[in-house]
Every structure is written in structure tokens, then in C-alpha cells.
Design goal:
Layout: E1 10-16, H1 19-35, E2 41-47, H2 49-53, E3 56-61, H3 77-94, E4 98-102, H4 105-117, E5 122-125, H5 137-144, E6 147-150, H6 155-160, E7 166-168, H7 173-176, H8 183-189, E8 198-202, H9 207-227, E9 231-236, H10 242-252, E10 258-262, H11 265-270, E11 274-278, H12 281-288, E12 293-297, H13 301-308, H14 318-323, E13 330-332, H15 338-350, H16 352-366, H17 374-386
């Protein structure tokens, strides 16, 4: 980093491509500034509102990059190509001290190849899931990444086996995920009845996910309501998909009493008896809140078929992968239908002993994710890694841009 007597700022390229990664990238940028008081750090790259709030100059907005799989990516190729060129042009002109790439591997690993030709060191924060699928990518990653910072406990051993410089810091969600109000206050605010089972439906944050998941969730909810009273919540982290959700509701279940709750997701999930959650980071959030959950997922048939030849894990849900057993029911692709899901939901809502047992398991699960302070630990590791060079100029071994 720069000397405190040197006013030249350290330039850092930071790139996130999805909402969850963007939140972690923003926290890391803030933690890096706290770890180097009196020193000037300038972040630029790809992100969204949260990263802008953290002082990152976002040359590319993440909304241009959000896609689901290899088939869904085709219509977005021009946006991805344009974003890549923009970031590389900025990196070539600004000559950052390092690049921090956050998750989003299909884009970031391609970007890493180009950055290497510019002799820019690369730190990867939040590992590509090479331990789950396309594991041979680890050999490419080893040639591109100077430091891998991982957030899942089993990932350090995986990368160390290939001789990589790897650091486990714990999961940033441990600091972020918590209810901020009591169940009584939440129910009073939203006029809910504490004596009626409450079910949260989380169809995902991306439009493709909402289109695949929400119709099945609504049909399941309709069947449940026909048999016994259930309070239905649909928590939204942002209003981006509100128009799409309203359209699907109008088409699929216009009379269904569904309470949409915006910008209060953690309280909604924490105070629900059960949550049905699109597989991904949201399953970790529900688990950290201690709420029993069912993981669901559906994508295009072609993407699913391709994935079957590439994925090699005993579970798809991150919670199950971490605990090493099927704690969370998984309903994926053809198994994710209204018949199967309504049966599973009824089993949980009718069995309070089952829900209490799962809650106790989830309390233990939280200890598996490394405790508080993951972003601070990551920032300190990056700062230690940067210490040998106290200048923003290009080190001798990097040479000129190719």
C-alpha cells in the first residue's frame, strides 16, 4: 500500500457480477479502508448500488450481467463483451495495484486471463465452485490467481491440495444476517395472526429465477390454502422484480392472499414457520436466521441436462454441503412441482417437533461458518499480501502491458 506520506492513491480493481457477491465486495472495500487508516485507496470496477455506497466507482453495473446458465447467457453476450472491454481498458490505463475478483467465475476467470497479460496481480474472493463442477478449472485458476480467499470451510483443503495460496476467512453472511425486530412487533406491523402457520416464499432475485419458480410456488400455495389456513409472505430484497411478480400473480393466482414484503426480508424469514427458498445464497441466509427451509430450483431443460454431466456433489443445497448431510429437503427440476412441494410443506407445518429439531441443527450450523468478522479477516489478509510493495507504480517483475 502507499506510504502515509505519499498522496498517490492505490488503485484497486474490484469486480462483482451478482447481488450477493456485490454485497460482499462492498463490505470488503469498506474493510480494506478501515484496515489502512490514513492511506488513500481508490476502488473501481463492476458493481451496483451497494458498492457505490462503499465508494467504488462502478464503470459497469451488475444489472447488465445477471444471467442464469449457459443457455440463458446467449442473449447477453454483447453486454458481457462490452463490460469486459470497458474493465480491461480501465485496468490498462489506471494500472491498479491488484484486481479483486468476487465470485461470478464465468466472467471473472475470462477477465483474469486478460488481466494477467497486463501483469496485474489477482486476488479471488469467494471461490468458483470448482469443487462441485468442472473441477479441472482448478489448474487454470492456479495459473491466474495469486491469492484465493475462501468462505466455506471445506474449500481451503481443496485448493491447498493443488498448492495454491489460500486463506479461509469464514462467511460474510454471518455478520449480515439477523432479524432486527421481534416476532410480535413484526406480526403487529403486518397485521399477521400468530396462531396461523406462516410460510415465506422466496423465488430468487433474478428475473429468470422468478419466471421459473414463482408459478409453481403460487400453485403450491393455492393448494395449501384450500386445505387449511396459511399466511403467505413473499419477501423482496428490492423492488426490481415487483412488476414481473405482479404480472405472474395476475396470470397464475389473482385471488391468492399473498403479502409482498419489501426490504424486510430477514425479519419475514426469521419469523416464518417455514421458508421455501430458491437454491443459492438465500438458503444460507434462511439457515443463519434459524428458519426451517426447503430448497427448490428449476432452470431450462437444456441447461439442466448439460449440468448433469458437469456437477459432481452429493447435495445441491449449500447448507447440506456444509453440514455433510441432507438437513434441508431439496426439490430440483422435475421434482420441483406443486404436488411434491405441497406434501413437503404440509409435513413441516404439521410437525412442530420436526421444526424445532431443525432449528436446533441450524443453530449448530451457524458455528460452521467461521464466526463474525469475515470481511475484516479478508481485508487483513489482502493488506498483508500487499505490504511488500509500498508503491502504486508497476513493480519491476510486472513489466509493461502486453
Amino acid at each position: 500500500m502507499t506510504s502515509k506520506n505519499n498522496s498517490v492513491p492505490v488503485q484497486i480493481l474490484i469486480v462483482a457480477g451478482e447481488a450477493s457477491g456485490e454485497s460482499h465486495a462492498a463490505d470488503l472495500a469498506e474493510a480494506l479502508r478501515r484496515s489502512a487508516p490514513g492511506e488513500s485507496l481508490q476502488f473501481f470496477g463492476c458493481g451496483g448500488d451497494r458498492m457505490r455506497q462503499a465508494g467504488v466507482e462502478t464503470l459497469v453495473d451488475i444489472r447488465e450481467l445477471a444471467v442464469l446458465g449457459p443457455v440463458e447467457v446467449v442473449p447477453h453476450l454483447w453486454h458481457l463483451y462490452t463490460a469486459m472491454r470497458c474493465l480491461l481498458k480501465a485496468a490498462d490505463s489506471r494500472r491498479p495495484r491488484l484486481a479483486i475478483l468476487v465470485d461470478f467465475p464465468d466472467f471473472n476467470l475470462r477477465l483474469a486471463r486478460k488481466l494477467k497479460t497486463l501483469r496485474i496481480p489477482i486476488i479471488y474472493f469467494i471461490s468458483p465452485q470448482v469443487w462441485a463442477w468442472r473441477s479441472r478449472r482448478v489448474y487454470l485458476i492456479k495459473t491466474l490467481v495469486d491469492l484465493m480467499i475462501v468462505i466455506l470451510p471445506f474449500e481451503k483443503k481443496f485448493y491447498a491440495r493443488f498448492g495454491m495460496d489460500v486463506e479461509y476467512v469464514g462467511h460474510p453472511l454471518v455478520d449480515q444476517v439477523a432479524a432486527t425486530t421481534s416476532r410480535e412487533d413484526f406480526f403487529r406491523k403486518h397485521r399477521l395472526d400468530p396462531n396461523i402457520p406462516t410460510l415465506s416464499l422466496l423465488p430468487g432475485s433474478r428475473q429468470k429465477e422468478v419466471k421459473f419458480h414463482l408459478p409453481i410456488l403460487l400453485e403450491t400455495a393455492r393448494r395449501l390454502m384450500e386445505q387449511s389456513p396459511v399466511q403467505l409472505l413473499l419477501p423482496l430484497a428490492s423492488s426490481l422484480n415487483r412488476r414481473l411478480i405482479n404480472r405472474i400473480r395476475e396470470e397464475e393466482a389473482p385471488d391468492l392472499p399473498l403479502l409482498v414484503i419489501e426490504t424486510d426480508t430477514y425479519n419475514a424469514v426469521a419469523h416464518s414457520d417455514l421458508a421455501v427458498v430458491a437454491s443459492g445464497t438465500a438458503t444460507l441466509e434462511a439457515a443463519l436466521l434459524g428458519t426451517p427451509l426447503i430448497a427448490v430450483f428449476r432452470i431450462s431443460t437444456l441447461t439442466w441436462i448439460i449440468g448433469q454431466y458437469l456437477v459432481d456433489v452429493p447435495f445441491y443445497c449449500l447448507v447440506n454441503l456444509i453440514v455433510g448431510r441432507g438437513l434441508v429437503p431439496e426439490l430440483y427440476q422435475k421434482d420441483f412441482n406443486a404436488d411434491r412441494l405441497s406434501q413437503e410443506v404440509k409435513r413441516y407445518l404439521r410437525d412442530s417437533a420436526l421444526r424445532n429439531s431443525v432449528r436446533m441443527d441450524l443453530a449448530r450450523f451457524k458455528t460452521e461458518l467461521g464466526g463474525d468478522g469475515a470481511s475484516e479477516r479478508a481485508a487483513q489478509r489482502i493488506r498483508d499480501w500487499m505490504m511488500p510493495c509500498h508503491s502504486n507504480s508497476v513493480p519491476p517483475d510486472r513489466g509493461p502491458a502486453v
